[in-house]
Amino acid sequence: MQLIFAAFFSLFALAAAPLQAQVAAPTAANAGDPAARPFIETLTADAFAILRDKSLSKAESRSRFRAMLQANVALADIGDRLIARLRREGKVSPAQYQAWQAALPEFILNAYASRLYDYDKASVKVIRTVGRGPFTEVYTRVTRPGEQPVDAIWQVKQGAKGAPVVNNLIVSGVNLTLTQEADFYSYAQKNGVDALIAFVKTSNERKPA
């Protein structure tokens, strides 16, 4: 089962129809948290700096990138949303939930880090920000030489320590958390929650090539 949510990093080179009308259209909406825009600008700049640093080995690049994600992505909240429907239906025991919480962050981090080296020539430009309740949506345009631009919306919220964190992504109209939640739900319906957790743990044990 492919981790769809790992498109967090794939968005830097994804070739798909852009959300140009959404991103480019002027708006009088609340701009949201003023810290969200520089946060995304810094996050993407730091990611590309790691990708383009040829002095780093692949292991060093992955280690730095994973540390950056761990500090800037709401991994625990994402993990909760990915099994929210299973929990509402009473299909996740307390022990299974603890095992899920322990396994999923590493799964997401490994999936992101494994995609590092395909996207070193991409760039991200922030177009605008829109406040929606407790979140700020940061609209960006991703470009890669010779390919069609892709528009992505980063959902940013205030983390537990008061600093902004990435809570979700919408890439070319696809809500990545909702898509991955449906994937995990289907897998658990067919194979059971224990099998889903085992899949995640097994994936964590595989070392990136």
Question: What can you tell me about this protein's structure?
Answer:
The protein is globular. Residues 1-27 have low confidence and may be disordered. It has helices spanning 7-10, 20-24, 36-52, 58-72, 75-82, 84-88, 94-113, 176-191, 193-205, and strands spanning 123-132, 135-143, 150-158, 164-171, 174-175. It has a five-stranded antiparallel beta sheet. It has 209 residues and is an alpha+beta fold. It has one domain: Tgt2/MlaC (Nuclear Transport Factor 2, Chain: A). It contains nine helices and five strands, in the order H-H-H-H-H-H-H-E-E-E-E-E-H-H.
CATH level-four homologous superfamily name: Tgt2/MlaC
The radius of gyration over CA amounts to 17 Å
Number of helices: 9
Mean pLDDT, all residues: 81
**What structural class should be given to the helix and strand makeup?**
alpha+beta
Largest sheet: 5 strands, antiparallel
Order of helices and strands: HHHHHHHEEEEEHH
Distance between the termini: 18 Å
Shape: globular
